[in-house]
Design goal:
Strands 3-2-1-7-18 form a five-stranded parallel β-sheet, with helices on one face. It has a five-stranded parallel β-sheet with strand order 9-16-10-11-12, covered by helices on one side. The model has no long low-confidence stretch (mean pLDDT about 90). The two termini are about 20 Å apart. It contains nine helices and 18 strands. With about 325 residues, it is α/β, with parallel strands linked by helices. Strand 14 and strand 15 form a beta hairpin.
Amino acid sequence: MTDPLDLAIVGAGPCGLAAAVAAKERRLSYAVFDRGCITESLTHYPYYMTFFSTAERLEIGGVPFTIPEAKPTRQQALAYYRHVVGHHELKVRQYEEVTGIERHPAGEFILHTRAPGVRIRTRSVVIATGGFGKPNRLEQEDEQPHDRVIHYYKEPYPFFDQEVIVVGGGNSAVEAALELYRNGVRVRMVHFLDVFDRGVKPWVRPDIDNRIASGEIPMHWRSRVARLGPGTAAIVRDDRGAATEVPCDWVLAMTGWRPDRTLLHSLGVHTDPVTGIPDHDRATMETNVPGVYIAGVIAAGFNANKIFIENGRQHGGLIAAAVAGRR
């Protein structure tokens, strides 16, 4: 056991780090815990990804994100957030997953982590675990788990001269399909709607539309992958029901992710069953459980496109002010 912290922050993504900076500025005792490395979710992005947002809108902690280009790459963002940690000398405990949180009647919380025999006392908790807790799995994965289904895409080279189905209609799916196509991969797309998502980057949209119109990337609208066979996949169109067998070595399920709310629910935080948004005060980010706060994408519920780094980074200041005022 340790002396109680003022604030324990679960999640070392950009919004969790912003909360740590705000806590330090308020002279609160704090620590940040993460199951992986700093900004682990960014390490799972495609290697050559460029952010939609400008560098300025990704800044945290008053540290300028200075690059010659308007929009930063994944590599530049990873370097920047590590610079923020070093600049502010933030207390981040990497690879120390919080496995459980106990709420005590005295108003304190006790964190249990994977570190043997370590328990951390804290007066307040911030859950900032982001929106990449669990993948949105395909229906057939529950019936037929298969190592040919991949939820992370980083680069096209492992799939050269292979048959790949990209499932999804968002920006990640579109960019993956185009990159695969231009690197010797026979790629087709499957989407359960009949249009692409509105979030597809405007400068990418004409490219994918032309590839589909020319037949270079076959497109299956209003369809799903029903089952996988040896070197094949069955694609079913919703309004017909008949299955189309196509060659398939891999399925890239670019179907999005959802937050892991296990810790929140274990503490008694209520979640709206329709929106998925945890019950919280937007002025302080405190949930219905006193002393438990949320920051970042986890506050968006099922709509992960509602909160990004550029608006989630503001949560840390609200939380630190509330905790400091209470203290």
